[in-house]
Amino acid sequence: MTEYTTVSIPKELAERVDETIEGTSFTSTSDLVRFLLRSIVIQHQRSGKLTESEFEEIAEQLRGLGYLE
């Protein structure tokens, strides 16, 4: 059985995410967060190390998608 933990984000961001995922395969904010975190972790594991510039590139992509301010 998979155990879960809670991650808190501002309500305003959660509302923006809910609007953003409408019409996508993501059914909840949690689905999107799991996808994004899994993607970052996989990229890190492949390269052996996530550099600051790689992290900034990911953050910039998320900003462009409206997930980060």
Automatic annotation (TrEMBL):
Entry superkingdom: Archaea
Alphabetical keyword list: DNA-binding
Biological processes per GO annotation: regulation of DNA-templated transcription
InterPro entries in UniProt: Arc_rbn_hlx_hlx, Ribbon_hlx_hlx
GO molecular function: DNA binding
Stored CDD domains: RHH_NikR_HicB-like
Name assigned to this protein: Putative transcriptional regulator with CopG/Arc/MetJ DNA-binding domain and metal-binding domain
